[in-house]
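Appendix B, example 12.
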Amino acid sequence: MSPSPKSLILDLLATLKQGSMPVGALVEAGELFGLAANAIRVAVARLLASGEIARDERGRYRLGTTGEAVPRRAGSWKDADKRVRRWGGGWIAVHAHAGGRAAQRGRERAVRLLGLRPLVPSLWLRPDNLTAPVDAIRAELAELGLPGEDLVFSLASLDPAAEERARGLWNVEALCAAHRALLVKVERSAKRLPRLARGEAMVESFLLGGQAIRQLVRDPLLPEEICPAGDRQALALALRRYDRLGRIAWAELLRKFDVPYLRAPLDTRLAPSPVELRAEA
């Protein structure tokens, strides 16, 4: 599935380590996906008006302050193992309080990205196996859209029946199967990518790499007692190599428009927000 003009712009700008990108680069990238130049320019204007992107003194573009929370969260796909610790059996919980559609959308995005699932109506849980303390998790959830009225707290234990239900909130079998399926696709594409025409390699690396990163970003990072990490780790390792191939494919276009600090521009549409792709220098 090809990206929308908005998605393409946000994803490309999210890869900027520093600096900015001219509209010409965005237009040329859009052409690879069949997006008209006018559609890209209209999307740029709308994103600028909404504050999701900003323009520098040279008339080039970068992410705005309203578009940064999800990229910061998603950029951790490479060091996910550093974000988890041995599980002591406790839980992180969110109790919904605020109402309204906007509050619900923000809450659903925040709890999804941090791997929480609903145990009962208005109560979401995840194992308390993240290295971040509950205060930091609360702040991250708020950045991702959790309403300020919602409660975020830790639970030391659950009764046996609730504990059993809580451990079964995630479809572990489907999650691991999805990791394995994407690993096969990434490995096959990695062998094929160097033989493709430059434009084809750019598109394929953008789309498939982004699909794999979305899969890793949305992995709830469960403890081993609930979900073994082997399939996730194997996909992440393969994606590191694929990420470098993607940067090679995109290098000519980026040099043409003097964009020296771009990380691999894979398509990681965590709609409606962009995702940072943290490639190694």
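The radius of gyration is 20 Å. The longest strand covers residues 91-95.
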